Amino acid sequence: MLARILEDAGKKFLAEAGLKVPESKTITAPDEITKALDELGEEVVLKALVPVGKRKKAGAIKFPSSREEAQEMISELFAMEVREFPVNKVLIEEKVAIEEEYYISITYDKKSQLPVVITSSAGGIDVEEMSREHPDKIKKYQIDPFIGLPDYKARELWAELGFSGKLLRQLGQITSRVYQVFTDYDCTTLEINPLVLTADQQILPADCVMATDDLAIFRQPELEEFVQVGSERLWRPLTELEKEIVAVNEAEPYRGTARYIELEGGEIGFMCGGGGGSLVMFDSLMRLGERPANYTEFGGNPTATKVYGLAKGIMKKPGVKGLLVCCNITNNTQVDKVAEGVVKALTELDKDPAEFPIVVRYAGVNDERGKEIFENAGIEYHGEDITMPEAAEMMVEKIRQLNSGGGSE
Amino acid sequence: MGILIDEESKVIVQGITGREASMVTKHMLDYGTKVMAGVTPGKEGQEVHGVPVYDTVKAAMREKEVNLSLIYVPPAFVLDAVQEALDNGIKLLVVITENIPQKDVVKALKLAREHEARIIGPNTVGMINPGAGVKLGAIGGDNPDRCFVPGSIGVISRSGGMTAETSWMAKRAGRGVSTSIGIGGDPMIGSTPKDLLKLFAEDDDTEAVIMFSEPGTHFEIEVAEYLEEGNFSKPLIVYVAGKFTEDMPAGTVFGHAGAIIEGEGSKPSAKMERLRKAGALVAENYDEIIDCIKSL
Fold first, then answer.
1. Looking at the whole model, is its pTM more than 0.90?
2. CA dist A27 to A20, A59, A92, A295, A393, Å?
């Protein structure tokens, strides 16, 4: 999975690898701009440092024409939320006189299963658009990860795009260094768009999109401070409940997994297991016209404590009226541990299965003992007697019965 | 018969002394799998459930005949373990470990291609051939018979849990499986569904195949093209999970790490449509798999 590294940090790594980068300051409050302008001059660009793409379109990059305007704009930026991300940091960067725009990106090509570098003489637009409109201005090359990207190979790419002379030498060297940063920092994406040629013939990265592999953080201590655990799979910052469950998960990092995504509305607490099993169950509920209150995946034989933390989190969300606990027949997850965790959470939150409908379908390792624990707590238990979609049907029926005023009398 | 593994499979477990690997070794032995040796550097001379442990694959192979490696080492050591197995001439590697950095996965897969070896995984639950009584990895846990009974249906699944559940669906429909394989949940894996369909196509004991898919990757498009080329004449039953993710905000990943939607073609609805056009039996609801099996 990827973890985004903000532009200021990305450029710092590029500079350390020997690339020339624009002069800049990162500030964390509007009033710090005065000092930044004193140092950088008044010809600047203001860029909100948020982990989302297409910032220009979102209005998160501003081009003030005077000191006064810069002061106004900086306050606007700090007051913004860019696709739900609050702006806590702004990059103040010298404005460069752009003569031409180029493009470099490095990523993993899933088909060839190799790193691939894409270079283009037409920067500034997104790569899909570029390959549609200017296929002749794009070069792609699959990199042997054991060899890397030597200067000469990078020069070949730029030469084929029509470059020569000093510019060709510089572009070759820059591209090779960008690959070095990509591989040294375990990136999954490193994109420089645009790479600009300035009026005084310097080549500078005007932007830098860097995403690093969160699975490699163990060997990238320098990156740790830039990456928030649990944020790599989301379209917005983590909610309080999500943070709570990330903490539950991290507390026992090697004992199973519990992931939780809070969703808007919904009455069914969704506690399903397995990456694939959760997808099947969510699809099954949606097919029946119900939208759960959250998404979850848990499995890999979690401890009862982890299950308890997750169950509690799921039921704590306001509006949750019932709980669906369902998984594929387990290969290693111990059903009795799941039962212990769920029952403990129910007891603690004082949920009575008579009023708070619960459907359990959980077969697998130690399921006889699991069944006993669930049934002793007054919870209806199912194992191999029903399929997963059948469990979804039962849940929906119970919730609808509850909403229509019971039906038990 | 079945594919890839049978009575002739002789297994070495790299990382055998780990908690999980040691438990799985016991379950594999109980099932009848020939676990010949294990490797954990620095622990030569120990035994794990009667299986001798060696410091290196080379040392193990001096004394034991092996033709398959099951890799259980932690993420940081997988690339090294894969290299070690390949350099010792092993041509089939099952990489169980999850959370391996992409940079290492890419290198491991490239080395395997250069050695003309096959990798299953990484991030797989393993595979099982109940007819031959052979299983590799946690698949089926301590009670494989619950989900995996001998039969003539092949199972290919992105999800480990759903490898078991889908095989159980075959059992519920009154049938059993020839070989069930978890291909691994990562975006880059050693053996894709198409690679495995090619093997199932040639296996006399496999009459039909069920494929459990998720959002993301180009695997299903590849399968559709393969079907259209007319190379697979057996029925292919497909369920694509995660249709709901199309209604969710972009940028969220549900399911396995490989489940990142990149381009229209990797959306579940597009995959279903494409596979249906190519002649696959596509189940709209997971339960329909049972009807599809019964219709064979």
1. yes
2. 21, 18, 7, 37, 54
